Amino acid sequence: MLSPAVAGGVLSDKGRHVVEELAAALRKAFGKEKDAEAWSDVLDNLWTFGPKRIGPNMLVNRVADFKRPSLFDQVLGDEAALDDAANAGQQHLLRVFDENITAGFQMATQAGPLCAEPCVGVCWFIEAFSVEADAEEEAKEGQDGALEGADTSQMCTAPLSRYAGQVITMTRDACRKAMLQWSPRLMLATYSCDIQATSEVLGRVYGVVARRRGRIVGEEMDESTALFRVQSKLPVVESFGFADEIRKRTSGAAIPQLIFSGYEILDEDPFWVPTTEEELEDLGEKADRENLARRYMDGVRKRKGMFVEKKIVEHAEKQRTLKK
User: What is the pLDDT of residues 5-31, one digit of tens each?
Assistant: First the structure.
């Protein structure tokens, strides 16, 4: 939802300049994509951002018979006249459910399908919107029953109000299922780790960082103190007990300092299973190799009380005592 200042038509020159700069930057970024033609009309049909209507995800209108001003047109107060679509009933129903679709999209981006955490950098396109026959009949009845001189918009909307919750749930589930079809990835919170150590324990420092699934990004020597300074990136999920372990391994000769540095994509499919002949020969049907992304995902889902697909009993006859 737009802020009260924007919704009321009050937008300062500075705010307008910021919005125009954002639109120009997005248009320039989309123009650099490989399939630039597919992204050419995204800003002209932008429905909303999410989550909280300001997040890094986008919902784009691609419904053929539904014309609505883009989000930037609404904010800048440059709304174009809505053309009458070929299917007037569909146009009316989509206008009624506009906010419900937006609410469902906000819920989907606020709690993604993997770990119920906010999504980042995902764009959804609404290609079609179909309505059952009984809903269309109710809309027509509402239009026919409108009294002359009365507020027809409210009378036409009232019979459809009971479908609002269903539209929100449908949009949320559709966004989540669509995201799962495109092999999503987890984003790990990372620390920037600065370690000072002597040359004698430098190898042990590297070993501890590697065991914690970190990576070395730089190394330099301080000539004044004869200490090596090692810069590395370390996942937050692997950082618990890191300081104690590195001090223990180096007998207190290494001093780590952890600073939060943002998020990084873990380029591993949490739902990966071997499918090709080479993968089946190397790993087998069960894929004995640990799927790191799946382990992280299941850990978060288990902590939140969500469903975890885990086979507890593999061979039932070995889990109980069979009596003769």
Answer: 444 456 788 888 888 999 999 999 988
Residue 292 within a domain: no
The span from the CA of 133 to the CA of 298, in Å, is 42
What pTM was estimated for this model as a whole? 0.79
Find where tokens 């002209």 sit: 44
- CA–CA gap between residue 74 and residue 80 (Å, rounded): 9
CA distances 229 to 199, 220, 223, 257, 320, Å, are 10, 5, 11, 11, 56
In the structure encoding, which two tokens stand for residue 223, read together?
């000539």
Judgement on whether residues 132 and 214 belong to the same structural domain of the protein: no
Instruction: Give residue-wise pLDDT tens across range 67-82.
Output: 888 888 888 776 544 4
Domain boundary among 180, 196, 218: 180
CA dist., res. 10 & res. 52, Å (int)? 21
Please report which helix (H) or strand (E) contains residue 257, including its range: strand 255-266
Residues 39, 66, single domain; the answer is yes
